[in-house]
Each structure stands twice: as C-alpha cells, then as structure tokens.
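Can you give me the bound-state structure? Components:
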Amino acid sequence: MPDASDIVFRARGLTKVYRNGALEVHALRGIDFQARKGEFIVILGPSGSGKSTFLNIVGGLDRASGGEVWFEEHQLTALGEGQLTQYRRDHVGFVFQFYNLVPSLTARENVQLVTEIARRPMRAEDALALVGLQDRANHFPAQLSGGEQQRVAIARAIAKNPEVLLCDEPTGALDSATGIKVLEALTQVNRAVGATTLVITHNAAIRDIADRVIRFADGRIVEETVNAVKKQPSEVAW
Amino acid sequence: MVIPPLRRKVLRDLTRLWAQVLAIALVLAAGVATLILGNGAYSSLYETRARYYEENRFADVFADVTRAPRALLGEVAAIEGVLDAEARIVKLGLLDIPGMVEPGSVLFVSLPETGGFNRLYLRLGRLPDAMSAEEIVVSDGFAKAHGLGPGDRLPVLMNGQRRDLRITGVALSPEFIYALGPGQMMPDPRRFGVVWAPRAALEAAYDLEGAFSNLVLKLAPGANPDRVIEALDRLTERYGGVGAKGRADQISHAFLDAELKQLWAMVRVLPPIFLLVAAMLVNMTLSRLITLEREQIGLLKAIGYTSRAVAQHYVEFVLLIAVVGIGLGFAAGAWLGVGLAQMYARFFSFPYLVFTRDPQLYGLAAVITLAAAVAGALYAVRSVVKLPPAVAMAPPSPAVYRERGAWIRRVLNLRQTGVMVARHLMRWPFRTLSSTLGVAMSVAILVASLWSFGSIDRMIDITFFRSERHDAQIVFGTPEPMPAVFAARTLPGVMVAEPFRQVAATISHRGHEKTLAIMGRPADPRLSRVLDPTLRPMPMPEAGVILSEALAEALQVRPGDLVTVAVQEGRRPIVTLPVSGLSVGYVGLGAAMEIGALNRLMGEGAMVSGVSLQLDPMQTAAFYAAAKTTPKTELISVTSLMLSRFRDTLAENITVMVSVYVILAGIIAVGVVYNFSRIALSEQGRELASLRVLGFTNREVSGVLFGELGTVVFLAQPLGWVIGYGIASAMAAAFSSDLYRVPFVVQRDVYAIASLVVCAAALVSAWAIRGRIDNLDMIEVLKTRE
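Here's the bound-state model for the whole set.
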C-alpha cells in the first residue's frame, strides 16, 4: 500500500457519457485509479475504450459526468473552467500525437511560450537539452523532422517542471526508430523531473518500459500489471 | 429538378459561411448603392433640369439695365446669334405682411409674354389678367412658407408705396429653381419670394412706361454666348447695363451646376473604394476556403471533374455573393434615391423630378460589381486550376516562417504570443496590407465626410463673426448722397452706422476677367471688414484694390500686380489699379476699396449704396418697421436671420450625409475586420486551442487574435488619415466655385472621431468573434492532424 502523501491522482467511480441527440455513448463506466508520484504508467486499449477520455479528464481538458478525480488535494471534478485552466497551466504537461507546436515559433520559442507563464520553469535551453535538441533551438517546426518536433513538444511539456506529464499516442505518428528516441526522451525526463507520467498508446510493445500498465476496454479498466523490471526504450521493438 | 452536387455544395457553403458572405455582400452593396444613387441622382437632376428648361424655354443670356426704351429690343434681337429677345421688368420690393416682424423681400418679375421665355409652371389657380393692376402669381416655395394661395392678399411695398396685391395663382419658374434672395446665403422661402405681375402694373409702379429693366435672350444653336454678351453690353451700356450674364453665371443655374459637380465627384470616389475593398475581401476569403478544401479539390479532380469545372464551382460561389450584394445594393440605392430626391425637393423648386430608373444603370452597376467580385476571385481560383490532384490530396506543406523583424521584438519587448502575432502578420504580407488598406479606407471615408462640419464652423466664424459683424444692412434702390447715412443713424435701435458703396465692375488681368461688385468701405471699417489670411482686419488702401483669394486665383494675380478695372455703371471709367492685398472670404468673389477712392473713381460725389448697422437688440422690431418704410430702402438684410437659416439648412443636410457616410464606413470596417478575424481564426484555430490546452486563459488566447486585429486597425489609422485628407482636399477643390469656396480645414477632432468610429466597428466585429474563441474545441484539435 503506497504512502497516502505519495498519491498524485485518485479517481473513484469516474463516468463519462456523451450525448449525441437521443444517443448516449458511455465512454467511461466507473473508473477507479491511483497514481504515485514519479510513476511511469502506460495505458493500453483499443480505439474507443475510453483511455483518451480518461486522460482528458485527468488533464483538466474535459469534465466527468459522475464520480470524482483528485489531483493531490484538489478535487478536479469540482473545479470551474478558469480553475481547470490554472491547473493545466501550473501542474500539467501535455504531449500529443500531432505535436501541436506553434508553426510560427522556433523550437526555443515554443518552449518559452510555456516558461513565460509558468511559476517555476526551467530554462528553455535546459529543457531542449533534456531531449537532445539544444542544437536545433532556432529551427522552426517546419524545419524539423517528426521525431524532433515531438521532442520539442516534450521539452515544452516538461519545461514548466510539471507534477504530471500526460502523453496521448506520442509515438503514433512516428516510425519505430524515431519512436524509440521519443520514448527515451520521455523516460529520461520522467527520471530527471520526477513527474508522474501517463502514456496512452496502441502499441503493446511499449508496455515494458513502464512501472505499471493499465488496460482499458469498453470504458473500464480491465487489467493492471506492475512491471518488476523496466526495460530501456532501446530494448523494446515493434 | 436535380441539383448537381457541386451546385448544392455552393449553396451549403453560402449558408455555412453566411456571416462572412453577408459582410462581403454588404460592402459590395454599398458600392452598388452609391453607384446607383450617385449616377441616378446625377442623371435625375440633369434630366429634370434639361426637360424643365426645354419645356419652359429657359433663356440663355440675362441682362439688367436701369431703364432702357422698348425700342432697344429690336436692336438686341438683331445681334448675330440671338434667336429671340424679351424685355422684362424685374424689380425688388419689400414684404409688408402684418405680424411678420423680420424684413423680407420679393422680386417682381413681369409675366412672360405669349411665346416668351422662362415660362411659368402654374401649380395652382390662374395667371393674372394682363390689364389688372393688382393680380399676381407667387412662387410656390414662398406661398407654402406663408400658407398663401389663390384669392389671398399679399401686402408689399413697391417702390416705397404700400400695395395690397391679390394672388390668382401659385407657380414655378426655371429661372428660380434655386431661389436665392439678394444678400442671402441660403434659400429662405419665408423671407424671399418671386412675384409675377402683368407688365403694365409693374411699368406703372416703377415708372417704367415704355421701358424695361431686364432682358432675356435665347441664342441660336451654335451661337457664341461670349460674343453675344459683348455686343449686348455695348448696346445696354448707355442704359445702365451692368454686364450681361450667361447661364453659367445665373444664380439658380450655377447652384444646380455646383450640386451636379458634387454628385459627380461622389460617383467617382465612393463606388471604386467599395468595389476595391470587396474584391480584396473576396480574394482573402476564397483563398482561405480553397486552402481548407484542398483535399476535396484533389478528390474532385481525381474522380474526374475537370479543373475548369472545379474552378467554376468557386467562381459560382463568388458570383452568388455578388448577386446578394447587388440585390441589397439595388434596394438600398433605390431607397436612398427617394431620400435624396426629397432633399432636392426641399432645396430646389422643380415642378416634377424625372427619377430615372434606367435599367441600363442598374445593369451596368451589376456588371461592374460582378466583375469586381470575379477579379477578386481570379487569383485564388487560379491556384485551384494549377493544383495537381495527387498533390492536393496530400496535406499542404506546413507554412514556412522565417525569423524576421527581430528588432520589432526587442523594441516592443514581445512575449512569445506577441511574436506569434508579428510573424503571422508578416507571413501573409499581402493580406495584412490589403486588410490595413481596407480599414484605412473606412477611416478615410469618415475623414472625408466629417471635415465639412469644421469647415462650415470656420466659414461661419469668419464670415459672420469676424468679417461681416453688422446686425443688419440696408441697401438703397439707387446710390444716395452721404447724408442718407445720417438718416439711417437716426432710425430706432441703430447704434452704429457705417456706409458702403457697391459698384459693378469687370476686373481683368492678362486675358482673365470677372464681373462682380466692388465694395467701398471706410478706411478703417468696424462693422463690415475684410480679413487678411491670418484673419487680421485689413485697412482699406488709399489707392489700390483688395481682392479675395478666390478672385486673385481666378485672375492669376498676386499682390503688387496691376489689374484693369472697367466700371459697369455711371460714366463707366476704366482704370488700372494695383492689387494691394488679398483677403479671405468664402462667399462669392470679392473686391474692396476705400469708399472715398471708389467715389473719386466714379466721379459722382460722395455716394453710398447702403449702410451696415449695429442694432440695439431690444429695439430690432422697431427698427425693422421703420427701415421698411424708408422710401430709399430696397433691401434689408439681417445677419442673425441669415446665419440661423444657413446653420439650419446645412446642419440638416450634413447630418443626413454624415450619417450615411458613417454607415458606409462602418460597413467597410466591419466587413474587413470580421473577415480578417474569421480567416485568422480559421488558420490559427489549432494553435489557439493548443494554447488553451497548455494552460493559457481564454483572455490570453483571444489576445493573440485581437493582437493581430489591433495591429491592422492601428496601422490603418494614420494611413486612413492621410488618404482621407487627400480625398477631402480634392473634394474641397471640386466643390469650390465662383459662388462659394469651401475652407479646407481638417481639425484634429475629425481624425479622432473617424478613428473612434472605426475602432468601435472593429470592436463589434471582435466581439462577434470572441464567442468562437471561447468555444474552441481543445480535444478535437489534439486528435486531428492539420
């Protein structure tokens, strides 16, 4: 049983229902979940299993229909729009499948975009160095490869020293070799920053690099495994 | 009926993008409306005047004499180029209506002979009996202002004699379409009317039996009016002729001409602005639509639609926008046209208004508008044709940015969001510039219309408060010896009396000449003064003549030059005088001399034409009553009445015009800003949603978009001021004529108000966009590739 002060996320009975006209889609059907500080969790599951919905609610991008989620001592499910924005700003780093960099800003400027509004940021150069891109700082996204763009996105996500790092299919648009580089960057910053990291993926091979693996199906957590031994990203193959 | 799928897509796109479509259509509509309104009003006014002149045989040449024998008429008619001539009696009289305190005058005109000129258009009643001594017809505006009609009585002073005339009819005449009384600046139908009476009655009243005081001539087609006028002047010289006038110098005709000139200026300036801005908006919007639909275009081509068919699809989209604009413009143009016609009806006395709903004009407006819209679409559509299907189906290569303008960032100490704004604006310089120009145009339209308020204030200030400071002027029928001034001084309520002498003369210099009245004033006038360009009162020179700037310009003279002054009355001396200074003045052409010098020139002794008076405000009614019955009095003009009439009339018209301009400028500002923001939002929606995910607040995210908008609106202001100043100065030049000049002053508040109005319109557009920013879908943007 982990120490209670060590728990970053707690979710209980979390449900999410999308209404589309008369049609009701149950995306989440009662999720119970906890994550410890610094834990690296991989979330697996088929499309439509609810994993992205879960990540969005935990990240303060979406609202639950029922149940509750706590981040440290904040009950996210009770926060208003403005407070959720503040939560994302202060505590959460996001990495997405399509990088979502600002095309008109260079790599460094994309990172500075976040450090300018963060409470205790690291230097943009340091964040880029963490992902091995210190030499590409002055390049615009259009001048970077997909893998490089994703690493800039990771640098941007961790530059604020977030408590949590949420990644939705970070390697989804990348080939295997590039994907491994991105995963290395993720595990590297997970160790260096100590941020609780949740990574959604379709790719079961990635499971071996996690502390814990959660499998979603039909809006529920159907399986949870703890890896006694974590592999290095370079050791996995897909 | 089966609608082809592409056509159905056009209709759906129009509905989906309705707000942008409407914004563009409104700008097009403004272009169409101003085109129709301006051209329609122009041809309406032009045609009406032409038909009225034709049907009522408006004369070509007009001449006043003191008294000439009727026998002279044969000689006049024999002048080469003269088709026919008619002798008339035209004399001023004073109104003597009980209960009407303020002085008013009437112009007596002998009834046109059978087959004569300037025939009346009888609106009510009948013409007077030719043998009657008391039957008259009065002008329509005057009758309405006093509630008079056939059967009513009109008490007047004719040649100092009180008479009670009987109205038999109410009429209009092509000679008095713009019925400006002597000494008036604006038509005032209450204080000035035209009275047509049988010749015999006027002959008797003004001691003109067997004689006449006015000639009107009709010229043969192709005759040279200048040559006829010259010959006529030679004939009338002996009889006190003061120089004949062609139509161009006939007051009513000249004012109509000035109005036509203004309309023409409006037609040339406004519609092109709207059409240009609309073409630009079409280009902006369509380019974005095509970028968004790139994959669909590729797909259409891949499944076998020709480039031409796809291009045609987008052209149809634009044509439909234009059709909406044209429809709105037709309606607005027709509606405004009615309003303008009503305004004309107040100003000009026409028996009818030929309101042309010329289908050709509407057709032309439609074609021009469609052409402008298609021209705007061409560049964007060309990219559709050039796009190979395989390339189109792949996502577009990402926008390439360059690190430019680092200095801007340093100078403004920009944050990253500021850098985004700057780079995005610089990434599409054409769009940024054309949007800036569009907003600038709306500022310019406002500057070019609002300046007239300040201009009129200045005109009023200089004319009524600095230069003509008298409360009233009495004009005598014929020049009187100096003691008449003392008589005037003794009238009740008169505090100060200052004489003036008015002499008709032709001033010429190197082939340029103008006929006008030279005003003689005391050496150091107190009431009726002339001002130098720095607005200091000028003393009257002992020798020499002071010309108004307008006159100096017309004659192309500078101070120190010599001009030839040919006096047109008395013994008609011709002298050469130095121009001793230039004066400012906005009404008519002016020349001034010291009254003693002018009298010496005339050689008739110390004579005065009238007196300028300062009155005791408590005794004005008593003054009016007494002045009216003084036999020498031909005309009493009252400054305060003239000023209030001037203000009321102008205020009314300018308020109408300015409201129209504010609406037009608002349409441009809203159209440009709204489309610009929608496109910027569409391009950057993904980035902005990403910013929201990263923890930026709604306010911060809106700030990025509004930063772009704000920059465009901000840059547009000085540009708009400059363009507006240019248009305003061209308008001032176009509106200036011998009748009046428009002082060209653009005060600072004009720029401020123009900018405020445009910024308010921009804010409205921004407000309309704000909701879309607040509702950006953060989750959607994470799941999709651009």
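A couple of observations. Chain A has one domain: 38-62+89-235. Chain A has six helices and ten strands.
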